[in-house]
Amino acid sequence: MRHPASRHLLTxxxxxxxxxxxxxxxASGTELRMTPIVKAVQGVKESIVNIHGHxxxxxxxxxxxxxxxxxGMGTGVIVDERGYIITNQHVVEGVRRIQVTLHxxxxxxxxxxxxxxxxxxxxxxxxxxxxxxxxxxxTSSDLMPGETVIAVGNAYGxxxxxxxxxxxxxxxxxxxxxxxxxxxxxxxxxxxxxxNSGGPxxxxxxxxxxxxxxxxxxxxxIGFAIPADTVMDVASQLMSxxxxxxxxxxxxxxxxxxxxxxxxxxKSVEPNSPASLSGVQAxxxxxxxxxxxVCRMLDIERALLDRETGEEVAFKxxxxxxDEKSMSLVMQGHGAGGNYVDAAWELLGIRVQMxxxxxxxxxxxxxxxxxxxxxVKAYSPAARQQIRVGDVLVGMHEWETISVDNLEYILKSDVxxxxxxxxxxxxxxxxxxxxxxxxxNYRVR
Length: 445
Description:
single chain, Thrombin, subunit H
């Protein structure tokens, strides 16, 4: 048994240790431990999502081998508060049910909106209950070999894994398979593993300067990322209002960077376009549309997305030496109103293009031809039937859909006019799927 005085001494010693650790904790926790890397990760973590899904892979090692189901995983970054997310195409390709988990743990089912095979980038969307935090994007135009970078992603299924390294080289060309070749990649020695694909590569300021895309199999310390400037340019195409809303603005321009700060410069304006009619001129710097501050073309598409035809949108540009101009841009449909393009988008929620005959024959299908789905409108009849980008529409009701003329005929038929669900047939991975699709309230003129 200890002497009472010993207990008092022990208690005093514990109190001194606790007090000293608290004092040390204040210094190390807020100053020494809060390194630039920690701050960078904390600043961007809520705009990074984890992606899971199942996909079917064909095994060609022997005749008769059955396709097998594998677990897919990857990462994505939020580029618009309405739930639009950029990731790699190979992360979501062939995935029937794309599961997206936010940083705080909520899981949603995402819809594939569009993709670009050349750059291996895809745009997906979730229907979140509240606006989501958007990733802070820097520029890849001023990167330096040797500078510190941070990779964040769903490595091997371990969510929100963080690794660091340096930029090893720039402008790499990488052949990863017989069919996939990447150009102008960032090389880094930050650990990039399966599951990191689609996640951000950050600079020390916490800005996204690339999207992680590939690793060199069998090598250590060699990973690659798509430059952020390329990602933003492709994202603006995938998210364009012409693709998603059948609207247009008519602005052609480029993003310029001065001391790492982006600004969007108008190079030309299409004649009789909404931008032209509003007074936008070549040489203008677009600064604001509605409530959105504009730095890149993606900001223009984001600001004009989901607007109504005929809606006036406030538009600000800088012209000359600090001369700011305010104007109104009136939203217009692209092309002649009431054609099959508008009808397919409004009635069904799809955009299509004809599959070349030689390419279609390679499917070894019993069908004579089809129309490839190039875009699916969020929450449209097509989206509700889980039709997705890349599917090939081969028939509706009792008619083939070999050409756009076939589709136009169907959309003008009495079957559509009756507003009853109509049977559709699609090809996906050489398999035929069918269902009954309702039509939206739209009249084809």
